């Protein structure tokens, strides 16, 4: 039985070349097809989200501004990060040089951090919409939404800068890295263990903890209100028969807000599910000192999250499906199409 993979070198005439795994033609075609489908779905899906929210005036709300910002991050993933990763997945070597390797790695962490921080903003938005509906329009205004989005993207650039400059590594970790990991054809930006741990906590674990606690509070309040409404129906029925009137009114959560909250919580859940292995890996590998094969750095599980979000919107948002039809059939170019009710 023949081997399904042959081992060669990324650079045949280089003394310190990394090893290259040569996949059979069928395997290469399957990898290109699957990863190419993820890239196209990410690009076109998020482009539809961006066009929909920016074009239709009805959708110009703080919640959708956060969704728009998240779609921009996902679109950049599909256009900037995924194509080089697709090439490395198939070729098992990095052929784009050291400088672009740093830029590529920095963009990856920046976009991932920006996506997560946008999800935190969405969680804050949903918290006020459900837990404090009377304060929602005072606290979460379009101006506040724009400020939070700008702050999220600004903070997301910090870990990217950390990865770009080598002085965040200790000398011992740099020496270990040079002795064990550097070879021609590998793209790995090494960080000192403490730096890697700090970035993982600030860019993933802390925001994830904030989101989970907010959504836990949201669903607790929603459940309590659902129970109180159910009890109020029986009370009003009894008082109707007894001739008494109930003058006490409490603010209630609309069905649309509940549905939006459930949909966006699914988006959050998909993100955490996709990126948890990546961030566990980002802590374990530097601390253990094992760098692993190049294929471990092709985080398609995390990237696939960018393709999943438009699918979630299509499944749960009626306005997204309706807007999609308007765009596909070209009605978006009609006069006053931005004022359509969707």
UniProtKB/TrEMBL annotation:
Cell compartment(s), UniProt: Cell membrane
Matching InterPro entries: GPCR_Rhodpsn (IPR000276), GPCR_Rhodpsn_7TM (IPR017452), TAAR (IPR050569), TAAR_fam (IPR009132)
Membrane-related topology note: Multi-pass membrane protein
Gene3D superfamilies, A to Z: Rhodopsin 7-helix transmembrane proteins (1.20.1070.10)
Keyword Ribosomal protein: no
TM regions (residue ranges): 29-53, 65-83, 103-124, 144-168, 188-216, 264-288, 300-320
GO CC annotations on file: plasma membrane
Domain of life of the native organism: Eukaryota
Family as reported in the entry's similarity comment: Belongs to the G-protein coupled receptor 1 family.
Entry keywords, A to Z: Cell membrane, Disulfide bond, G-protein coupled receptor, Glycoprotein, Membrane, Receptor, Transducer, Transmembrane, Transmembrane helix
Domain G-protein coupled receptors family 1 profile per the UniProt entry, residue ranges: 45-313
GO MF terms, alphabetically ordered: trace-amine receptor activity
Membrane found in the keyword field: yes
Protein name: Trace amine-associated receptor 1
């Amino acid at each position: 039985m023949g081997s399904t993979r042959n081992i060669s070198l990324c650079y045949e005439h280089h003394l310190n070349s990394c090893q290259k795994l040569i996949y059979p033609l069928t395997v290469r075609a399957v990898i290109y097809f699957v990863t190419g489908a993820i890239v196209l779905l990410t690009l076109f899906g998020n482009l539809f989200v961006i066009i929909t929210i920016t074009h239709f005036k009805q959708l110009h709300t703080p919640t959708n501004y956060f969704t728009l910002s998240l779609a921009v991050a996902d679109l950049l993933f599909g256009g900037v990060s995924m194509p080089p990763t697709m090439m490395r997945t198939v070729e098992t070597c990095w052929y784009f040089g050291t400088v672009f390797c740093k830029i590529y790695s920095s963009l990856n962490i920046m976009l991932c951090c920006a996506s997560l921080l946008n999800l935190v903003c969405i969680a804050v938005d949903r918290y006020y919409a459900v837990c404090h509906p009377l304060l929602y329009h005072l606290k979460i205004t379009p101006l506040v939404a724009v400020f939070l989005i700008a702050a999220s993207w600004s903070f997301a650039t910090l870990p990217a800068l950390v990865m770009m400059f080598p002085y965040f590594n200790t000398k011992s970790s740099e020496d270990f890295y040079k002795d064990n990991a550097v070879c021609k054809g590998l793209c790995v930006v090494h960080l000192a263990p403490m730096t890697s741990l700090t970035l993982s906590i600030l860019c993933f674990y802390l925001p994830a903890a904030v989101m989970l606690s907010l959504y836990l509070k949201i669903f607790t309040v929603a459940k309590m209100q659902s129970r109180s409404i159910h009890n109020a129906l029986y009370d009003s029925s009894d008082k109707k028969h007894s001739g008494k009137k109930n003058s006490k009114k409490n603010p209630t959560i609309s069905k649309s807000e509940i549905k939006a909250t459930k949909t966006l919580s699914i988006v959050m859940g998909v993100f955490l599910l996709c990126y948890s292995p990546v961030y566990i890996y980002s802590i374990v590998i530097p601390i253990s000192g094992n760098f692993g094969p190049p294929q471990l750095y092709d985080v398609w599980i995390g990237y696939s999250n960018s393709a999943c979000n438009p699918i979630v919107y299509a499944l749960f948002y009626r306005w997204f499906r309706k807007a999609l039809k308007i765009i596909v059939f070209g009605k978006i170019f009609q006069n006053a199409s931005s004022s359509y009710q969707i």
